[in-house]
Amino acid sequence: MQGWNVARARMTSASASPIAKRCRRSGRLHLTGAARTTVSAVATCVLQAAHALAADGPVNAIPNMFAPVSPPAEGIRSLSFLVMAIAAGIFVTVTAVLFWCVWRYRARSDDEHEPPQVYGSNQIEWSWTIVPVLIVLVLFLATARTINELQASDVPPEALRVTIVGHQWWWEIKYPDLGVVTANELHLPVSRDGARRPTYLHLESADVIHSFWLPQLSGKTDVVPNRRNLMWMEPNQTGVFLGQCAEYCGTQHAKMLLRAIVHEPAEFDGWVAAQKKPAAVVDTVAAGRAVFQSTACINCHTVDGTNANGRFGPDLTHLMSRTTIGSGAAANTPENLRAWIDSPDHFKPGVLMPAMKLDDGDLDELTAYLLTLK
Ligand SMILES: [Cu+2]
């Protein structure tokens, strides 16, 4: 599985790459110059880095809203192209008239008189009233149509229903009809002509306002306490798509990442079947399970079939089926898992999971146990 972390790892390892060197060189070159030059140098570096990532990285390393794979996101892109085209037309027209006036009415050596002063012209007044009203009307109608498509509030019977609960700073993901609970990684089936599998999401919050945003799949929707917002998506391509909380929600807002994994239907059914299984019970890690069950972990986390039924943190029943931990803060590797339990703050300063101050032996056993939760 590739994505955000790979992208980030590449960013870091890129510091020794030719791109980074070029960036550094151009940065130094312009820093003494005007602020504008600096900004353009930074923009160039960002673009170059983004381009390098797109070129040799995973296809969806950049959650690009201009590369939609689902009807709501396609609708938003078409609307934004229309708005940009109209804005560009206005810009070009106004700029052209401006330059023409500056040139046509420039001061000349034979100018002796002030030019004629015109007060009140019905023609001009009408034209600069009616034309903008028409433009705004077109924008309004096009926007209203897109909003109407996005807000389809009738959930079709064949739809997959998912409830998303935003927490500081992770996503709880529940499939009420399937009895599946997971976190941070939304699995959903692909839709093909003839076999539509749309996904309808209810968005809820356990604490503050968040915003659920998977740019290639749908628009941005606020996740508001004591309210249930609806969003839908119908991806027509398989793959991993990245997203992010899009509303500042506290210290670790920037590490409240999100990924959607779009599967072939059979693969999706396989994932569901695996998630419905009870937690693995492996005898060789009984010691680690005992540490887990006798520590405060169980007050915040659930592992099906144990005494752990806390709801404050992510469900750990199938922890190892996820590619990341901490809402995309780190890859889900044995080393990261151990380091996370030892000190979650190391990955997410201010995180709401406390460091449990376990000794090295307990930590090893606990990690070995978690690694069996496939
Ligand atoms: Cu948030």
Strand order across the biggest sheet? 3-2-1-5-8
> What is the string of helix and strand elements?
HHHHHEEEEEEEEEEHHHEEHHH
Bound molecules: copper (II) ion
Q: Mind summarizing the main beta sheet?
A: 5 strands, mixed
The averaged pLDDT comes out at: 86
Rg over alpha carbons: 27 Å
What this model shows, in words?
This protein is an alpha+beta fold and about 375 residues long. The chain folds into three domains: about 1-55, no CATH class; about 60-100 and about 125-180 and about 195-235 and about 245-255, Immunoglobulin-like (Sandwich), CATH 2.60.40; about 285-370, Immunoglobulin-like. Helix content is about 40%, strand content about 15%. The protein has eleven helices and twelve strands. It has helices at about 5-15, 20-30, 35-55, 70-105, 120-150, 265-275, 285-295, 295-300, 335-340, 345, 360-370, and strands at about 160-165, 170-175, 180-185, 185-190, 200-205, 210-215, 220-225, 230-235, 240-245, 255-265, 325, 330. The strands form three sheets. The chain has a five-stranded mixed sheet. Strands 4-10-9-6-7 form a five-stranded mixed sheet. A hairpin with a 2-residue loop joins β1 and β2 (about 170-175). The radius of gyration is 27 Å and the shape is elongated. The two termini are about 15 Å apart. The relative contact order is 0.10. Residues about 1-30 and about 50-60 have low confidence and may be disordered. The structure holds copper (II) ion. The site of copper (II) ion has 7 residues, from loops.
Provide the descriptors you would attach to this structure in a database record.
binds copper (II) ion; Immunoglobulin-like; 3 domains; alpha+beta; 11 helices; 16% strand; disordered N terminus; 5-stranded mixed sheet; 12 strands; 374 residues
